[in-house]
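--- STAGE predict ---
source: upstream dedup step, 1 unique chain passed
mode: sequence only
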Amino acid sequence: MTRSRNIPRDAMGASAIEASGLAKSYGDKVVLDGIDLDIPRGAVFSLLGPNGAGKTTTVQILSTLIAADAGQARVAGHDLVADPDAVRRAIGVTGQYAAVDALLTAEENMLMMADLLHLPRSEGRRRAAELLDRFGLADAAKQLPGTFSGGMRRKLDLAMTLVGDPSVIFLDEPTTGLDPRSRRTMWDSVRELVANGTTIFLTTQYLEEADQLADRVAVLDGGRIVAQGTPDELKRRIPGGHIRLAFADAASMDATADRLALDTVVRDAEALTLQIPSDGSIPALRSVLDVLEAAGVPAEHLTVHTPDLDDVFLTLTGGAATGSATRSLSATTNSPKESAR
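--- STAGE serialize ---
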């Protein structure tokens, strides 16, 4: 199941999560240094950052597990401080380690969660059966989780999170340690949840995961959000995109390079290639094709490279080594309220 990005904000409804100036320190160590968030309902929001950047702390604050030192936040329309119980009733949390009871069967784990949520017995059994079937675990309902693969345990953990039908789910590095097939199965589950209106707050160190799932991405470094936007917006703002042309002979390569007349074209005489800086847009590609046509020489191969989220991550994180790039990108990145969709 796929879903389109760039969903208009007015079509998404009110914000699922709003935060202003959230701060948290442990002694002299500042973990969060005043972050702002505005996440629309029914979206996947991904928070990226290196280890120790404050991703898990952000999730813990917004899910009422710990208190912020400063700032305000509302989740699912409820104030974290004034009405934490209402926040807890509206959310689900799944971490990187499946929180299932190894001494209970899959079905018993589900029913235990229903009891903890004070669901009527008949409703709890209905929800448990429905979710086990939805996640392909119905045949394993009477088995202990110790017999499950990592992917099955993670699916059971997510199914338990959904017993209370939360409107907002925090997924804190949910696919850590999973094999590629299990990871993609989890992605499909996330897409299905969002298609049904659930808001997902995702932290991950797998940048492909954020690129595949997120409607909006924020990069957290040193306790601050240094940039945020759609994945495509962030990638377009990182330098390094180019078009690479490969030729059959040096004469064709030189004729094309002469017509391009750009100081930034990189020639590789041995590989018979030209590398032309480009943002990867259709107009930029068309202009190169026009030059090839005017030169009257064909290119053997044409490839377009655009920066990915790995490039974004490496450019924006790492402190002083990338500080100037971070400041440059942050200066041109819209604020969350200006860009929320």
